[in-house]
TrEMBL record:
This is Ring-cleaving dioxygenase. It holds the Pfam family Glyoxalase. GO terms for molecular function: dioxygenase activity. It comes from the Bacteria. PROSITE patterns: VOC. Residues 5-131, 156-282 form the VOC domain. It comes from Virgibacillus kekensis.
Amino acid sequence: MELKGIHHVSAITANAKNNYQFYTDVLGMRLVKKTINQDDPSVYHLFYADEIGNPGTDLTFFEIPNAGNTYPGFSSISGTSLRVPDDRALEYWEKRLDEHQVDHDGISEQYDRKVIHFRDPEKQRLTLISDETNTGVPGGQPWKDSSVPADKGIIGLGPSKLTVQNPEPTIHVLTNVLTFKKTSSYPSPIEGQEDIQVYTTGEGGTGAEIHLEIRNDLTRERPGRGSVHHVAFRVENEAELAEWRKKLQSERLPNSGLVDRYYFKSLYFREPNGILFELATDGPGFATDEDPEFLGESLALPPFFEDRRKEIENNLNPLNTKRPH
């Protein structure tokens, strides 16, 4: 029962159409699933990933049209990383972000890796991170029809950054409940703040890290558009997920129980600082109900929503995701 790394990250957008344009046209990621928020079928849930939506490559967005601005603070998932193959790819990305007038900080170094910190149009806090020295969890396959060259393309999710005021309860969950181990730390870019701690699971590397930031100069985050809803960690299969549920119960951590998301099975819980974690199975995957060639082009509904398709489609704003073939 060792978590294999990061499975996906789910964030919030106020506008699915603009979100789709940015993540596919500018970042060159593939929309592998256009579906609904299963907890609110009146809005979209969009999944961007590699060529076939391998676990560990999915950045997803719930559309919440009336979401206000995010006020950053603690008790949050305050940063999401996107992996690129090597340092040379970052040189390409620096120019590309400039061409598309994306707000970014240029190439810098973080934890002995080259990175570019940048923001999407809703101020989602993102980082492109080089896999130049990665020896851990391998990346995925860049989308073959991307506007970004394959040798420069995004190949998966990198470390998620958590920001907390009181680190001990979060550390307890990461190390004593889950299977993360503290492996290193690096200086905070904020003067006067503690070093950022690095926690690793599974094979390690960029696809299996949590970076824990301790901040005593902030208030609690007020989430909205541009904030992260939850981070999910990879579990091998449903049998193992059931064992994880028993473990959470033995630790007296309230949890959702097993939830069928159709493309994977899930288990949700909040660690004591209020950050939402999900454990998710690697399969069955996004080709379960669509031809891999046409992923994301039509509205996909899990079978348990199919009888409501007409009602659901009538309530959604049109979003054309058809691609030329």
